[in-house]
Amino acid sequence: MWGRNQILEYIKENLKESRYIHTLGVAQSAIELAKINNVNQDRVEVAALIHDCAKNMPVDEMYRILEENNYEIDEVMKASPQLLHGKVGAIIGNTIMGIEDEEILSAVEFHTTGKKDMTTIEKIIYIADYIEPNRNYPGIEFLRKTTFEDLNEGVLQGLSNTITYVVKNGLLIHPLSVEARNYLIQEKNNS
User: Fold this and answer.
1) Cα 12 to the chain's mean position, in Å?
2) Alpha-carbon separation of residue 176 from 28, 76, 97, 113, 118 (angstroms)
3) How do residues 147-167 score in pLDDT, each as one tens digit?
4) How many helices (H) and strands (E) does the chain have?
5) Which keywords does UniProt give here (predicted)?
6) To the nearest 10°, the Cα dihedral for 37, 87, 84, 173?
7) Is 6 within 8 Å of 93 (Cβ atoms)?
């Protein structure tokens, strides 16, 4: 498995500067959330650093990688190719960087949509991407505060915000996001 410096070198070479800065911010937020939630910080940092490693890759190249790795692309992803980079990033993490940790790879794969029954690391990468220090949008301070007080509540709010945004913009909602939100609400109601 690649070390931290090799990963940093790869993402610096393959991402636009703004995306590289974003990635470092995600890693910073993810490590802070890992400390609070008693999760291995090294694993979280690896997932955070590679989460967007395919973000600036041309769509046709992403399709080629997915096809070569026998990945099925659902209709929503075909219509919303900006969602593909998570799946491609997980493949790159595994096949190029030698990462075999399934939880890290899953956190990368599902960081854009979420999914039901996410692990703590998956939740951290999902929400760290949303609240990292370089992000600035109405309500982010409240979401950061919420997330650092209660990870599940922060993820739930992040999913709700994303779904609302997608609906307002007339875009397709990925079913995994709906499943993730519903799962967290049911979990909250049953506790």
Assistant:
1) 18
2) 26, 10, 27, 6, 11
3) 999 999 999 999 999 999 999
4) 11, 0
5) Hydrolase
6) -50
7) no
What DSSP element (H or E) covers 109?
helix 102-109
In the chain the domains, ranked by start, together with CATH numbers, are: 4-189 (1.10.3210.10)
- As a whole number of angstroms, the distance between CA 93 and CA 167 comes to 32
The kind and range of the H/E element at 21 are helix 17-36
Q: Give the pLDDT band (50/70/90) at residue 9.
A: very high
The alpha carbons of the chain give a radius of gyration, in whole angstroms, of 16
Per residue in 98-132, pLDDT tens? 999 999 999 999 999 999 999 999 999 999 999 99
Question: For the chain, how many residues are written?
Answer: 191
**Which letter, b or e, does each residue of 71-101 get, where b requires 16 or more Cβ atoms within 10 Å of its Cβ?**
beeeebbeebeebbbbbbbbbbbbeebebeb
Return d(Cα 108, Cα 112) in angstroms, integer. Answer: 8
